């Protein structure tokens, strides 16, 4: 009797994500992949490579650039885009500030004003599908969002009026001006992402691994001292061995203490943690209990 054929957990997730990407290209006209140089968007790029090989990836990538970046991540972004021969669209928050499209927030954090900049780029380039790297395990608002997430002509999401998704049937129908946010990694966890990074031997920005950095402790989180964050009052800078679990706006993304300087050590660390990367490191999610949902209603990723 021949041995039973079994598909591994990672292989099943990969196949599902590739199916989603192919479905988008088949159903919609002008997709784009949101690429920040973070681990989830790096995994999405690898999935896109596999989905359409041996052809080139049939859509551009877009970075909504707040101007508050980690240099290591920008360097990686540009190098990876060049390696794959992709067209990079940069939706620039600094340019939007200069043009008057948005106003600089009083707290100095630009995550909130990414939304109108993103929506302006969607309208300008007429994108009707945006691949995002959000996962359901990250945050409760993302946990209830569909793989194909419909957005109205204003880019807004209504969590009480979502389309049903039965089995692998996805509905990409929309009117002109409307769009679909697509999340191929919805059913992945942070641990799945790291196992896939190990399996595919994916290169990542160095800040994902343990390194020494000058930080301050603020609101129970460790923020790097840089041009966007300076000590306040009694805060004292100190050197710590840290790594970043997620990459975002440098003014509101914190590091975690860690000695994990290899993929294998990171996997062991993530397997033992009991708090999501956004809950542990994103100051912008702590504004209120519904901070993420409020932003997504307005058109955020």
Using brief descriptors, characterize the structure shown.
Rossmann fold; 10 strands; four-stranded antiparallel beta sheet; 10 helices; 2 domains; globular; alpha/beta; 301 residues; six-stranded mixed beta sheet
What would you say this structure looks like, in words?
- This protein is of the alpha/beta class and 301 residues long.
- The protein folds into two domains: 9-191 and 290-298, Rossmann fold (3-Layer(aba) Sandwich); 202-285, no CATH class.
- It is built from ten helices and ten strands.
- The protein has helices at 9-27, 39-52, 71-84, 93-99, 114-125, 140-143, 190-200, 263-272, 277-281, 291-298; strands at 31-34, 61-65, 88-92, 129-131, 148-151, 179-182, 211-218, 221-224, 238-243, 256-257.
- The strands form two sheets. A six-stranded mixed β-sheet has the order 3-2-1-4-6-5. Strands 8-7-9-10 form a four-stranded antiparallel β-sheet, with no helix packed on it.
- Helix 1 packs across helix 2 (39-52), helix 2 (39-52) crosses helix 7 and helix 7 (190-200) runs antiparallel to helix 8 (263-272).
- The chain is globular and about 60 Å long.
- It starts with 8 loop residues before the first helix and ends with a helix.
Present the secondary structure layout.
Blueprint lengths: L8 H19 L3 E4 L4 H14 L8 E5 L5 H14 L3 E5 H7 L14 H12 L3 E3 L8 H4 L4 E4 L27 E4 L7 H11 L10 E8 L2 E4 L13 E6 L12 E2 L5 H10 L4 H5 L9 H8 L3
Parallel strand pairs: 1-2, 1-4, 2-3, 4-6
Antiparallel strand pairs: 5-6, 7-8, 7-9, 9-10
Helix pairs in contact: 1-2, 2-7, 7-8
């Amino acid at each position: 009797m021949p041995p039973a054929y079994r598909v591994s957990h990672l292989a099943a997730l990969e196949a599902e994500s590739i199916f989603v990407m192919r479905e988008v290209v088949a159903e919609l006209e002008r997709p784009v992949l949101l690429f920040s140089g973070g681990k989830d968007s790096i995994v999405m790029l690898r999935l896109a490579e596999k989905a359409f090989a041996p052809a080139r990836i049939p859509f551009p990538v877009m970075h909504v650039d707040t101007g508050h970046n980690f240099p290591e991540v920008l360097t990686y972004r540009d190098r990876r885009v060049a390696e794959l021969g992709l067209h990079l669209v940069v939706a620039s928050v600094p340019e939007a500030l200069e043009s008057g499209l948005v106003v600089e927030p009083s707290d100095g954090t630009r995550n909130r004003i990414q939304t109108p900049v993103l929506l302006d780029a969607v309208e300008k380039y007429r994108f009707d599908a945006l691949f995002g790297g959000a996962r359901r395990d990250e945050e409760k608002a993302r946990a209830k969002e569909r793989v194909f997430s419909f957005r109205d002509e204003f880019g807004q999401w209504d969590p009480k009026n979502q389309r049903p998704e039965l089995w692998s049937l996805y509905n990409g129908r929309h009117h002109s001006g409307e769009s679909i946010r697509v999340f191929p990694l919805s059913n992945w966890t942070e641990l799945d992402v790291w196992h896939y990074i190990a399996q595919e031997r994916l290169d990542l920005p160095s800040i994902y691994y343990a390194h020494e950095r000058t930080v301050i402790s603020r609101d129970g989180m460790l923020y790097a001292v840089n041009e966007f964050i300076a000590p306040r009052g009694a805060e004292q800078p100190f050197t710590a061995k840290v790594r970043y679990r997620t990459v975002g706006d440098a003014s509101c993304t914190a590091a975690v203490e860690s000695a994990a300087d290899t993929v294998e050590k990171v996997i062991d660390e993530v397997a033992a943690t009991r708090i999501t990367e956004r809950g542990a490191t994103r100051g912008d999610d702590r504004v209120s209990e519904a901070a993420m949902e409020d932003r997504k209603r307005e058109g955020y990723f």
